[in-house]
């Protein structure tokens, strides 16, 4: 059960988390009309450092615009609210922050007319989301990832997470850690709430699937770190056979950080022997150590990527 931090931002003020409540008839609850962010913050050397806060802000505002919520807040206003909330919660540990835009008004129809959307933010302590031992055992999901002609795939829109819910719940019910999702043509898109990078025959490939994958901030960071280390990235179609015969399948997301898949449909990734025990590959090791350096303030990119709360 998640333990939330004491204060949240709600109705344009900082309030106690328990007091930030809405009616069961809200438009957002009934129709999934929210867009949200998921951000990690770290407590290092006596300071709170938030990972790529500005990029998360831009993605959230773009989502609000795409979804037609007509809610906007400036970067200065947003960062001031985040700063105040972090201070009020007297944060002294690593955490996860969930800003979201929603409509708390009750309404019986899905239409927008006359509804106001607003920002809320809550926080919770979060160390590791996946165990640091080993990688993920993935299942090929029978649920396809929707595409941009149905729902804007670049927005983290609440209602669209029914897709992730179905995929990841089925995977877990079948004894796997998570689901690998494909588009209608059978190309790999992403994991239920994380992006993928495939290492295949000396190439680093990210899926070119008509942009059905969310534009993850962690995957962007991983690719920038790889380029920083002199590697080239290819964008291409990835089918399931390529995953089975790949050297590595990296999995990236705010919650998972940078991890990897041990297997897909019980076939080990990066091993020829069906019964071999999978191990972390060289790109996973490189990226994990680079990411740790960034968040510890020891990387050339740390100052660019970390928002220090002062
Ligand atoms: N894809 C989906 C569908 C997600 O929900 C997430 C988590 N936000 C990601 C990918 C990874 O994105 P990020 O690295 O920005 O957390």
Structure, described:
There is one protein chain. This protein is of the alpha+beta class. It has 8 helices and 17 strands. The protein has helices spanning 27-31, 53-66, 75-88, 161-173, 217-228, 240-244, 282-295, 302-305; strands at residues 7-10, 13-16, 35-36, 39-44, 47-51, 95-102, 118-125, 136-140, 178-182, 188-191, 195-200, 203-207, 233-236, 248-253, 257-264, 267-268, 306-308. The strands form 3 sheets. Strands 8, 9, 10, 11, 12, 13, 14, 15 and 16 form a 9-stranded mixed beta sheet that branches. Strands 3, 4, 5, 6, 7 and 17 form a 6-stranded antiparallel beta sheet that branches. Strands 1-2 form a two-stranded antiparallel ribbon. α5 links the parallel β12 (203-207) and β13. The longest helix has 14 residues, at 53-66. Residues 38, 156, 164, 190, 193-195, 214, 216-219, 252-254 line the site of 4'-deoxy-4'-aminopyridoxal-5'-phosphate (PMP). 4'-deoxy-4'-aminopyridoxal-5'-phosphate binds next to α5 and β14.
């Amino acid at each position: 059960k998640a333990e939330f931090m004491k204060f949240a931002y709600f109705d344009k003020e900082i309030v106690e988390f328990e007091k930030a409540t809405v009616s069961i008839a809200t438009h957002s609850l009934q129709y999934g009309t929210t867009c949200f962010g998921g951000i990690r913050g770290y407590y290092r050397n006596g300071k709170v450092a938030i990972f790529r806060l500005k990029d998360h802000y831009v993605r959230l505002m773009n989502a609000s615009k795409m979804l037609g919520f007509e809610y906007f807040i400036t970067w200065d206003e947003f960062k001031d609210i985040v700063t105040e909330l972090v201070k009020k919660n007297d944060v002294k540990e690593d955490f996860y922050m969930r800003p979201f835009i929603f409509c708390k008004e009750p309404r019986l129809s899905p239409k927008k007319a006359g509804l106001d959307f607003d920002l809320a933010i809550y926080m919770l302590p979060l160390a590791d989301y996946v165990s640091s031992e080993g990688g993920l055992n993935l299942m090929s999901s029978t649920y396809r990832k929707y595409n941009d002609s149905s729902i804007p795939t670049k927005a983290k829109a609440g209602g669209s997470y029914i897709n992730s819910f179905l995929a990841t719940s089925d995977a877990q019910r079948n004894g796997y850690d998570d689901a690998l999702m494909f588009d209608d043509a059978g190309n790999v898109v992403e994991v239920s709430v994380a992006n993928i990078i495939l290492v295949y025959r000396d190439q680093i490939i990210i899926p070119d699937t008509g942009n059905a994958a969310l534009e993850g901030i962690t995957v962007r960071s991983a690719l920038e770190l790889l380029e920083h280390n002199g590697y080239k990235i290819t964008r291409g179609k990835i089918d399931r056979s390529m995953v089975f015969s790949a050297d590595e399948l990296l999995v990236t997301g705010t919650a998972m950080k940078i991890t990897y898949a041990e297997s897909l449909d019980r076939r080990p990734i990066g091993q020829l022997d069906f019964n071999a025990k999978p191990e972390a590959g060289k790109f996973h090791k490189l990226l994990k150590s680079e990411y740790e350096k960034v968040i510890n303030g020891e990387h050339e990119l740390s100052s660019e990527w970390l928002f220090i709360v002062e």
